[in-house]
Amino acid sequence: MTNTKLIVSHAPFWHNGDSLFQQNLNFFIALLPAAIFGVFHFGAPALGVLALATSSAMLWEVIMSVLSKKKMAIADMDSAIIGLLFGMMVPATMPWWVVITGTFIAVVLGKFVFGGTGGNPFHPTLVGIAILTMSWPAFFDFDTAYVSYQFDFTALAPLAALKSQGTYALASFSNYDLLMGNEVGGIGSTFGLGIIIGGIYLILKGYARWEIVASFIAGILITATLFFVLHPDTYAPPLFHLLSGYTLIGAFFLAVENSSSPVNRIPMLIYGFLGGFMIILVRNIGIYPDGTVLAILLINLVNPLIDTIRPKALGKGVPNA
Question: Of 47, 48, 25, 23, which is closest to residue 37 (Cα–Cα)?
Answer without folding.
Answer: 47
